[in-house]
Amino acid sequence: MFKKIIHAVFLYDNKRKAVTLLLVFAFIGCIKNQDRLFSQEAICVESTNAVKKVAFLTFDDGPSNMTEEILDTLKEEEVNASFFMIGELITEDKEPLLRRMVEEGNLIGIHTYTHRVKEIYASADAYIEDARKTADRIYEVTGTEPTYYRFPWGSSNCFISPFCDEIIVCMENDGYTYFDWNVSAEDSVGKPSQQKIIANIRKDYKKYKEPVILLHDSSINKNTAKALRYIIDELKAEGYEFATIDKRSKPCQFK
Ligand SMILES: [Zn+2]
Questions:
Q1: Are the C-beta atoms of residues 63 and 217 closer than 8 Å to each other?
Q2: Per-residue pLDDT of the chain (255 residues; tens, 9 = 90+)
Q3: What distance in Å separates the CA atoms of residue 150 and residue 246, rounded to the nearest whole number?
Q4: What are phi and psi of 252, to 5 degrees?
């Protein structure tokens, strides 16, 4: 009898352990893949009315100490890009960079104020408050109201799924449109080389007349800034023009 009880407890414990382990693995998987989640699901329906080949370069997570180099390259290549900014990184010394972005025809959108997952994705209200704070900061510096935003980790990720629709509706009521991507440089995971970044983009952009390319503008993205010229030159050679996201025939959205 005693043996039977021990056996039952052991089995019960094992089941509990198995369930706990499964939950832990699922959680780790979610965290581990958070940067890649969207690039794996990066499918926004190709617009049917696009006639011209136009590429949309988008940079998340700026401003940073790479922003100036990125802007210099864009200017030399005579192309424009869209920047989704982190509000708390718009320090006084970075303000001239934002004004330069706008003066040179680039677009500034909202990314997040803090980029801290637990805070911004705690609730729909928390997300919206964070986004508004970022919009206010951008307006304060540039005098331009942002109208586009990009969800950190994209519009359907592990963190926002319970209230994603609520956020989208509320933000839409405030006049904001979210923008995902269909091509990823995958430059926020590890430290890919210039060649790897170029290869990541190359494997997908030709599928689209209007590729929306996800890149990052942060201090760890030196190779992104250096690869930019080659990316632009290759796309130009393939017949693509460049524009800011507001010129796309329709927003690139996963859902
Ligand atoms: Zn980000």
A1: yes
A2: 444 444 544 444 555 554 444 434 444 444 444 443 443 445 676 665 778 999 999 999 999 999 999 999 999 999 999 999 999 999 999 999 999 999 999 999 999 999 999 999 999 999 999 999 999 999 999 999 999 999 999 998 777 778 888 999 999 999 999 999 999 999 998 889 999 999 999 999 999 999 999 999 999 999 999 999 999 999 999 999 999 999 999 999 986
A3: 13
A4: -90, 110
Per-residue tokens: 41: 């699901």
- Name residues with Cβ closer than 5 Å to ligand 1, which is an ion: 60-61, 152
Q: How many helices (H) and strands (E) does the chain have?
A: 9, 8
Phi, psi of 188 (to 5 degrees): -105, 0
The two beta strands, 212-216 and 54-62, are: parallel
pTM: 0.84
Cβ atoms of 242 and 214 within 8 Å: the answer is no
Give the integer Cα–Cα distance in Å for 37 and 33.
5
How many angstroms separate the alpha carbon of residue 235 from the centre of ligand 1? Answer: 24
Three-state SS for 147? coil
Ligand 1 center to 198 CA (angstroms): 20
Furthest-apart CA pair in the chain: how many Å?
Answer: 83
